[in-house]
Amino acid sequence: MHKPIMPIVALMALSGSALLAQDITGTWQGTLVAGRALRTVIKISKTPGGSLGAALYSIDQPAPPIQISTVTVQGSALKLNIATMGATYEGKLSGDGNTITGSMTMGPNPLPLNLTRATPATAWAIPEPPPPPKLIPADANPVFEVATVKPSNPDEKRYGINVRPGGAFSTVGTTLRDLITFAYGVHRQQIIGAPGWVESDKFDISAKPDIEGIPNDRQIRSMMQKLLAERFKLALHKETRPLPGFALTVRKGITPRLKPAVGSGSTGCKSTPLAGSSPTVLSTFVVACQEMSMAAFAEGMEDARGAAVLKNLICM
Asked: Taking the model in full, what pTM does it have?
């Protein structure tokens, strides 16, 4: 005599329906260990269109919330794509719907991040984001009020030119040629007639504008030009000479896929050789950029190719 199986089948169907009915919306929090413990909050909600949206908050690094690009739920599996961080989160929702066991991937190694559904009593307070940076008025003509120029440590391997959020300017391991190319927006090949030490001697600079705030690109270059004239006694004149260069154009038959920046806060380009291209200076590269003007993009190509990109010949 066979035992009835209908109650078992009904129970299995009920369990599956209960799992699919779990509501993922709400506030989730957990600690991400990435060198140090970072309390992380993820808020998932339904958009007016009925789909799921989410935002990520870092409690220990006050900053504006990071919008999560896509939220995908399949059964008990949750996947978040965080494009602005270049990260993904994958987790599994527990049967009671109160915990998610998962990990955050921002590089080669996933980092554990287990989340718990927060209640009004247990939710971490989300700090206010920092105020937007103060900008120097666009019509101002600032100068460096205080500036220190000193030879670099011979053992120093770092190199960089930085403008900090408060407006302070600094360089590490920069030659005078580096500073001239930055100040005047020219390519290295466009500087001629300079003594050898212009390219060999390195300097560290620390400077502060006489007006509070962050200078725009034109202002920082203007201040640098004045500093070079004052401290290095730089004197120059402009000539027109033929130089080798690249023209940045649109390939025939290709439609440019340029989109206005959306204010992600992430700036820069990443280039990778196209599969099958030969490792030469004329190899084909695929370049992806965010928050870049065409002038800045062209300057980046100058560094990659070793010759000037003719910005006035950019065709889009």
From this structure: 0.52
